[in-house]
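tl;dr need the bound structure. longer version: we got a ligand (pyridoxal-5'-phosphate) that a collaborator sent over and nobodys looked at where it sits. i said id run it. heres the input, straight from their email, havent touched it
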Amino acid sequence: MELTGMYEQLGISEKVLKFARETEAALKERFEEIDGVAEYNQLKVIKAMQEARVSDIHFAGTTGYGYNDLGRDTLEEVYARAFHGEDALVRPQLISGTHALTVALSGNLRPGDEILSPVGKPYDTLEEVIGIRDSVGSLKEFGITYSQVDLLPDGSFDFEGIRKAINERTKLVEIQRSKGYATRPTLSVARIGELISFIKSIKPDVICMVDNCYGEFVETLEPTDVGADMIVGSLIKNPGGGLAPIGGYIVGRKDCIERAAYRLTAPGLGKEVGASLGVSQSLYQGLFLAPTVVAGALKGAVFAANLYEKLGFGVVPNGSESRHDIIQAITFGTPEGVIRFCEGIQAAAPVDSFVTPEPWAMPGYDSDVIMAAGAFIQGASIELSADAPIKPPYAVYFQGGLTWYHAKLGILMSLQKLCDAGIINL
Ligand SMILES: *Cc1c(COP(=O)(O)O)cnc(C)c1O
């Protein structure tokens, strides 16, 4: 078959292909389900764009202060409509997910307030933002305190613990949807809704903010559909569709967005300023493509989970469970295993396929880390990428893929490298 020949030219052996074909054949129904979600979300985005009357004029950029930036204002309307919030802040000046979260938090908190995380430790970078790890400029330095309730050992919410932790100073609850690089399960939107209802039944005026990174468009609902006051994320992950070159978003209640905007720019200025330069068109087009891009990434994650599960490796989520984010963890148990896997992901990339990733002492980590990424946008993890700390249990986390076929090639290449190194015998 012509296709087999093409794979062979790229370095994939017939053995690997055959094994992969058998795995893929069993995933028809899963893939159809993923396509169904993408179809719904595609319509949701188109509907939002039509209702906001998106037009050619909105793709023009502004400079300087950015007064009357129609493209920026309309894009924010599109995000608000697509994610069912009252308002939105979607800006290239939100330079990452961590920054968007920082702006949402610091805009809405005042000295004496307390943040509660009812789902355990938040994402690594937030530790310094909040002041869980001391850092210059943290919220802690401004007299904002933090409390945390862990999930119970079986992954369920500790409702009693949460009830006890909510006090008169609790102003904002931070709920992280994706497990990120932790071992807890990712929360479904339905579970987030259940948690928010419980919290609001105790303290109705508390702000429920969801860190939505890696979760956008994985389900047909978003946390704003189940009571979240704010959702926050990065445009170089899911909602940027691989085209956004930079940016973050906050969608939610109008007063929350307004306070965040006063923090991002300046009190009194808020959303009225902030030039979009030339990036608006990429942000529109990326959002338009995001539902199918996320579907491709999800297929890759499900494919990898099934492939490596069949080979006897630990996978989280497992091959058959439902998905609530695009991250896949695979435990190889040896440094060699995670290194070969990352080499395969790198070798399959459209960009920098010729470089060999190596473990290095990355600042902020307590062990060497290996990273594979051959991305068009630096650090974009909606593009096929993988990373692993070189320490037990020697697990690799991988995510993304702008198309299913690229994700598939990356996974096949990883398997090929593991076979070539004699770690796997097919
Ligand atoms: C990626 C991520 C962040 C931070 O985003 P950056 O853009 O890397 O700063 C925060 N929370 C979660 C759950 C994430 O996955």
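gonna send this back to them w/ a short note. The chain has two domains: 2-42+288-420, 62-277.
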